[in-house]
Specification:
Length: 224
């Protein structure tokens, strides 16, 4: 499978159970929202998926690669937009992406073309030579999304990607993420906002470290 698969993943901080046998699947081409209130375990899951933490129990496969036994391949198939922005405001959009490309060892000759392609997917080509400082919050987020696509991942992990954005910027990001899913990416988008799950095509509800509900978004539209 080219998607994301998590099996029986558990994690404890000392005595505190943050994730309790979590399993989930997101297929290629699907835009899945992971909804959970503060403390549900979203950040812990993101840390495990990005291997900032390693779980003693459970398995994670990214595009078919086992994160435990083949971490380089698994992480190479993952694009991430972290909740905290990471960008240099004094660099241009292109320079910010170029820095990331160098950090990840992308072939030098391919970098300019990949940057243009990634920015194009987010309708950001016109902003390539602007300083990040000059961009509004929505465009900064789109720059980060473009950056997450540079190495052509199969799975895209977005950790509360709309925090701090206004409604118009949120709608723009959501529309772009839908396009990316339609192009075949597997998307997992975390949020604590019930409003945002309407935009996804699949939904997981995380509560106190457990998946309470997994289904298509329409099922809970009535009570969201
Ligand atoms: P969310 O991102 O959904 O708010 P977290 O993954 O941050 O949830 O937290 C899940 C649970 O683990 C919460 O009960 C939280 O208090 C606890 N927790 C998170 N980080 C730590 C830590 N470093 N030490 C102890 N408990 C933690
Ligand atoms: P989106 O609606 O997808 O968020 P933008 O935020 O890029 O698109 O564009 C918002 C508005 O700003 C549009 O009307 C667009 O024509 C205009 N615009 C886009 N890029 C520039 C630019 N570099 N300078 C001035 N206006 C721009």
């Amino acid at each position: 499978t080219g998607g994301l698969s998590v099996r029986d993943l558990s994690f404890h901080y000392g005595q505190k159970c943050a994730l309790d046998a979590v399993s989930l699947d997101v297929a290629p081409g699907r835009f899945c929202a992971l909804l959970g209130p503060n403390g549900a375990g979203k950040s812990t899951l993101v840390s495990l998926l990005t291997r900032l933490l390693v779980a003693p129990e459970g398995d994670i496969h990214i595009a078919g690669h086992d994160l435990r036994t083949a971490p380089r391949k698994a992480l190479a198939a993952l694009g991430v937009v972290f909740q905290q922005p990471t960008l240099d405001l004094n660099l241009t959009v292109r320079q910010n992406l170029g820095y990331f490309a160098a950090l990840h060892g992308l072939p030098r000759g391919e970098v300019p073309g990949r940057i243009d392609a990634a920015l194009g997917r987010l309708d950001m080509r016109a902003r390539a030579d602007e300083k990040a400082r000059a961009l509004n919050g929505g465009h900064r987020r789109r720059m980060e999304l473009a950056r997450a696509l540079l190495h052509e991942p199969k799975v895209l992990l977005l950790d509360e990607p709309t925090v701090g954005l206004d409604a118009a910027a949120r709608a723009a990001i959501t529309a772009h993420v839908h396009d990316l899913a339609e192009q075949g990416l597997c998307v997992l988008w975390t949020t604590h906002l019930t409003d945002e799950v309407r935009d996804s095509d699949a939904l997981l509800v995380l509560h106190r470290g457990q998946i309470l509900h997994a289904g298509i978004t329409g099922e809970i539209r009535g009570d969201a």
